[in-house]
Amino acid sequence: MPMEDAMRTQRAVRRLHLEPVSHDVLLPLLELSLKAPTSSDTQDWHYVVVEDAAQKARLAKLYRRLYRVINPIIERRARGDERERRTIAPGQWQAENFEQLPVFVIPCYRRGLKHRPVGHPQISVASFYGSVFPAVQNLLLACRAVGLGASLQTLPIWWVPAVRRILGLPRNIVPVCIIPIGWAKGRYGPTTRRPIGEVVHFDRFGNQPYR
Q: Is the model's pLDDT at 118 over the cut of 50?
């Protein structure tokens, strides 16, 4: 699939078939994703791949506990709005079926000496995630290219101490997101996005000559 086609039709595919994904399919995609650039070429990344049913059930229990907190907010936002209800329905399906999804990939970064805060701590945190998310996007595009559904999730790992216990993560390994992967049941297709004239600013915020 041409790269532009993959990018123009990529979307978060949350409804997945429940059949396993072969390692013969998955491992080359993981390898491709790690061709991404990373800060100072440190490659401070690790992937935890979760296929075990008991492990998936533990993560699903945690996810649903957190989902129950935000779902009332989501429901209120969608009340009376049919388009919004269609938008949130795949996420609700995923929350209800989370432990049955074939495989989770949990990208993590390895915190080292270079990650000690210098100046404002927020700058340091941006460096952590900036070294991992290019690989995450590569993985999402690689899944799109072969017809696998995938979506980037953060809610299931909001409670980091619990995720650490479930996955046995050392203190210097920090989870950044979770990507459920399976053969796509939901559809890929052209996405609707705001025109670049509305969101692109030149030199200073508010200078939008193409608006």
A: no
Q: Count Cβ atoms below 10 Å from residue 42 Cβ, excluding itself.
A: 13
SS3 content of the chain, % helix, strand, coil (to 5): 50, 15, 35
Q: Which of 1, 17, 19 is nearest to 9 (CA)?
A: 1
Q: Residues 111, 172: contact at Cβ < 8 Å?
A: yes
pLDDT: is 200 or 122 the higher one?
A: 200
3-state secondary structure of 107: strand
Candidate ranges 47-51, 64-68, 170-174; pick with highest mean pLDDT:
47-51
Topology of domain 3-199, per CATH?
Answer: NADH Oxidase (3.40.109)
pLDDT band at 3 (very low <50, low <70, confident <90, very high): confident
**Residue 170: is it exposed, middle or buried by C-beta count within 10 angstroms (0-12/13-18/19+)?**
exposed
Q: How far apart are CA 13 and CA 34, in angstroms?
A: 21
User: Do residues 184 and 147 touch, judged by C-beta distance below 8 A?
Assistant: yes
What is the residue extent of each domain of the chain?
3-199
pTM of the shown model: 0.88
